Amino acid sequence: MTHGKTHGNTTTGGTTGPDTDAAPEFPVEPIRALLLEQFGVIDELLADVHGDTWYTPTSLPGWTVKDITAHLIGTESMLAGIEAPHVEIDVHALGHVRNEIGAFNERWIESLRGTPGDEVLARYREIVARRREQLGAMTQKDFDEPAMTPVGQATYGRFMRIRVFDCWMHELDLRDALGVPGDEGGARAELAAAEIFGALAYVVGKRGKAPDGARITFELSGPLARTLHVEVDGRAAVVPALSGPATSTVAMDSRLFVRLAGGRTHAFDRLDEITLGGDTTVGRRIVDHLAFTI
Predict the structure, then answer these.
(1) Measured in Å, how far apart are the chain's first and last C-alpha atoms?
(2) Does residue 87 have a pLDDT over 90?
(3) Quick one: where's region Disordered (predicted)?
(4) H or E segment to which residue 228 belongs
(5) Does pTM surpass 0.85?
(6) Which CATH code fits 28-195?
(7) Are 109 and 63 a contacting pair, CB within 8 Å?
């Protein structure tokens, strides 16, 4: 739930099928361990925030560093069974609130608006401690249980992978706002980025409107370097290899790619960092619509 946004049409589901010997689609490990690690990384970032720095604007409209922290508190509180607080303002009237998830987020942010940053950090640590205890007691069976998630009906395990994605994206938001770079690679990044890469066919076919017969190759450099192929044959699908030469190619650093996918920046502001080949009209339309959160 990034800034009150919901994912696009990504794949949902629980385990891989009725074969109980099959590996679970969303295994309790490493998802739990990486989520707990992500909580700790954010704590380390926030531990160095003091005074007016809490009010540093971020790339998310209307949100400061403190507001992102309040949002994280709110989501984990909801998962811990704590109801959203009542607030006096109509959060639906805020310009950046587009749906009920956004309204939920703003209730928590508004409820902590007058709370000093160090107290907000203490609240974050309290709810994380509670969630560590809850998650620590969970089994694979718990992760396989049906659950309503930001992408609709799925499983609790899927929700927790989305939590890794959401928290990781907010880590990047905090780093960008505070000027504290990170490596943006490794196990947490790979698990989080699985949500982005899982939405690529939707982004190319539905949002980018790649025509039937299009074959698109993405070349990502940087910490999440990889080559990704999408082919449109009736509908768009990520494929291990194209059936013919790419009709469009898109190359950029993965750090830019994840920010475009998360709606943190816009391609028209970063065109000098993107290389398009083949049918550049299709390629440009795709990069202009890479955001898979709405």
Answers:
(1) 10
(2) no
(3) 1-25
(4) strand 226-233
(5) yes
(6) 1.20.120.450
(7) yes
